[in-house]
Design brief:
The structure holds 2 protein chains of 2 kinds. Chain A is α/β, with parallel strands linked by helices. Chain A has 5 helices and 5 strands. Chain B is α+β, with helices and mostly antiparallel strands. The two termini of chain B are 105 Å apart. Classes of the chains: A alpha/beta, B alpha+beta.
């Protein structure tokens, strides 16, 4: 039972991921824009155990959010799985260099496999 | 008339000179002849009569009347009517006897002529002028003195001097000569006049007439009358001239007609050419070796935004337009110098995208000489925009299409996984399952289109993995074996003795294997599918052999093409139905440095496909 924070602006995908993680027994929070995500992450007393981060969200880019997480000593050790639909290698490299713990291409994974991978990440921790 | 002067003057001059010279010679000759005759006659008379009439003593004692008488009689023999005066001199230069009595005994010590006579002992005559005793050569006037020595017993005793008025002697000669000259001159004048008239008729007139006719030709008058022909060289010239003129007339006539026709058709051709050039959407320029603009078309003006009359555009207008962005002058010069075409694929100028093609114009037939260059300019701005929007379209499509598809598939699969118990109705379960399958298929189709788009625009990135091809094949076969088993087809691969390491994108190789093997499964009713390997040079070749329905020869050429439409039936494609499977496999394999082909296929027996991958370095 882990606290999972999902940052995803597409309502269908967001709902789907939330449901998937819930069905797997996690406590899920869904945030749909970048500004709110940062605010939530600023609440150090209530840190999530895992962040599922969509690269493209409104108001603040996923990149910046990732940077902010990894630059903030309070929250930098929270595992972050980055979601994207881009196949560009540079993006993967960039994400990884910024500290992303997992890089997932949305179309290649359905909800189940994302949850599986996330669980692996959480178990390693 | 100048010709006449040219013809006449030599004749006149020559005649005059001849006349003068001839007369001169005749005069001298005649004169001498005359004088000589007389002189010789006198000399003889003296010689004959000297001994007869004269004695030595007379020359000493000359005053003796006997001497005088003898002298007189002696002279009587010699004298004739022409002789004006006779004198007998002694060898001492004293006058012994004379017609003029008072001069007898006169001593002339300085008498040059006498001195000469006594020294030489030879008779001579000499001409003298009236006033002095100086010798003078004239025909008219003057005197003639003859000196003849008198020899007695072989010894010179004295001399006879005969004084004559020349005119008397020369008069008849001179008259005759004068007459001859008059005759010659007058006949000369007559002859000259005759010659003049004759030449005028024979030569001058026809030439003059020809001249006028020739001049008329330059005024385009081919019918100016020419004098009657004569039967000589001039006549030949006239007749040839007339022939030539007739010919020239007809030629000019024809020529003018020809020129008109040709000019007209040339103008038509030109108009057609210009119309074609102006219809070209590309801008065109022809530039000569000095860098001057020879030819342009309307599109050039449109693309480069040139105003005014196209005939007024100059190369410096063009240069100005390109200044700072493109060195048109330099590139044209380089093209001409190196005799090779220059292509500029993309030039951003004044907000437009242009492509340029510069080619040299070479006279191949003669000298391989460069006579200029051609420049073609195309406006590819729209193309570029289209390209960009295509790119943008696909990247947008990528994101937008896939997101809802992911949601559909994800939810459908979650329902199937977690909510199966909540859905008792089998039909509903089946519907959910179909939705899942359909969404997966849609995802695959979208994926195919995106792959094709990326491959065609060369934006697909291939990873460079090193792996064993046999191992990957094994894994792949395991994953799709289910379908084969369902159809009771054997699916296996031949394991090579040692690992065959290749360098390629692992995921994409798997994609190709899945495509080819799935195709085989789909098109095989029974039998087996075998994957085998072969190392050839720097490549590893993979064979996929099946015992399927085979591919008819007519369809074989379509196999690797986009959409492979052969009527309504797809030549070879799995249930996706996009017709892109083999096309994508081809682009993938080629993108990784290999090649793909249908090795062989027989209808009813089966097919063999193959592809190659580069060996690991």
């Amino acid at each position: 039972m882990k606290k999972v924070l999902i940052v995803e602006d597409d309502k269908y995908l967001g709902k789907m991921y939330k449901r998937a993680f819930s069905l797997n027994g996690h406590d899920v929070e869904l945030i749909t824009d970048g500004e709110e995500a940062l605010r939530r992450l600023g609440d150090y007393g209530n840190k999530p155990d895992l962040v599922i981060l969509d690269i493209i969200v409104p108001k603040v880019s996923g990149l910046d959010i990732l940077r902010k997480i990894k630059d903030d000593s309070n929250i930098k050790d929270i595992p972050v799985a980055v979601l994207t639909n881009s196949l560009k290698k540079e993006n993967e490299e960039l994400m990884t260099s910024l500290g992303a713990d997992l890089f997932l291409i949305k179309i290649e994974h359905d909800a189940k496999s994302i949850v599986e991978k996330a669980n692996k990440l959480l178990n390693i921790k | 008339m100048k010709l006449w002067y040219k013809l006449i003057s030599p004749i006149i001059i020559v005649s005059a000179v001849v006349v003068i010279v001839v007369s001169f010679f005749i005069a001298s000759a005649l004169k001498n002849l005359f004088f000589k005759e007389d002189f010789e006659k006198m000399e003889e008379l003296v010689f004959e009569n000297a001994g007869h009439y004269l004695q030595k003593e007379y020359f000493i004692d000359y005053t003796n009347p006997e001497a005088q008488e003898q002298f007189s009689e002696f002279l009587e023999e010699i004298r004739d009517e022409d002789i004006a005066r006779t004198t007998i001199w002694s060898k001492n230069q004293v006058i012994l006897f004379s017609d003029l009595a008072p001069v007898i005994g006169f001593y002339s010590p300085d008498h040059r002529d006498l001195k000469r006579l006594f020294e030489t002992g030879e008779a001579f005559f000499i001409e003298k002028s009236e006033d002095t005793n100086k010798p003078v050569q004239t025909i008219v006037g003057g005197f003639l003195d003859t000196y003849i020595p008198i020899f007695l017993d072989g010894e010179i005793q004295g001399a006879v001097e005969l004084h004559m008025v020349k005119a008397v002697i020369t008069e008849p000669i001179e008259d005759a000569i004068r007459n001859i000259i008059y005759i010659l001159i007058s006949s000369g004048i007559v002859m000259t006049t005759l010659i003049l008239l004759i030449e005028r008729q024979i030569i001058i007139k026809p030439i003059h007439s020809l001249d006028k006719a020739a001049e008329a030709i330059s005024r385009e008058d081919f019918d100016y009358p020419i004098n009657k022909k004569s039967d000589d060289e001039i006549g030949d010239l006239v007749s040839h001239f007339q022939n030539m003129r007739v010919r020239l007339k007809s030629l000019v006539g024809n020529l003018e007609g020809e020129v008109q026709v040709r000019t007209r058709s040339l103008k038509e051709e030109q108009a057609k050419l210009m119309a074609s050039l102006n219809a070209l959407p590309r801008g065109l320029m022809l530039i000569d070796t000095s860098g001057n603009l020879l030819l342009t078309n309307l599109s050039l003006g449109r693309i480069l935004d040139l105003s005014g009359n196209p005939a007024d555009w100059t190369i410096s207008d063009i240069e100005k337009k390109f200044s700072g962005v493109f060195d048109i002058k330099g590139q044209c010069a380089r093209c001409q110098k190196e005799k090779t075409p220059i292509t500029i694929k993309e030039l951003f100028w004044a907000g437009k995208f242009l492509d340029l093609f510069i080619a040299p114009i070479i006279m191949i037939k003669d000298s391989n000489e460069v006579i200029g260059n051609l420049v073609l300019i195309g406006d590819i701005t729209e193309q570029k925009i289209l390209e960009r929007s295509k790119d943008e379209f696909f990247s947008i499509a990528s994101h937008e299409l896939r997101t809802p598809l992911t949601a559909i598939r994800g939810n459908a699969s979650m329902i199937m996984d977690f909510y199966k118990d909540k859905i008792a109705d089998k039909d509903v379960q089946e519907m959910i399952s179909d939705m899942f399958a359909a969404s997966e298929r849609l995802i695959r189709i979208v994926g195919d289109f995106l792959d094709v788009s990326r491959l065609e625009q060369r934006r697909m990135e291939f990873k460079k993995d090193n792996f064993d091809i046999a191992e990957i094949t094994g894994k792949t076969i395991k994953e799709i074996n289910g379908n084969a088993l369902a159809k009771k087809i054997e699916l296996r691969f031949d394991l090579p003795d040692k690992p065959l390491l290749v360098m390629a994108d692992k995921d994409r190789v798997k994609q190709v294997l899945v495509n080819l093997i799935s195709n085989s499964i789909n098109y095989t009713k029974e039998g087996r599918i075998v994957v085998s390997f072969e190392k050839i040079d720097k490549f590893v070749k993979v064979y996929i052999k099946d015992t399927g329905v085979g591919i008819p020869p007519t369809s074989q050429s379509l196999l690797f093409h986009k959409f492979q439409q052969a009527g309504d039936v797809l030549a070879r494609d799995v249930t996706q139905g996009t017709g892109l499977g083999l096309y994508i496999s081809k682009l993938l394999v080629e993108g990784m440095g290999g090649s793909i082909k249908l090795e062989e296929s027989t209808v009813g027996k089966g097919s063999v496909f193959s592809f190659t991958l580069p060996v690991q370095e």
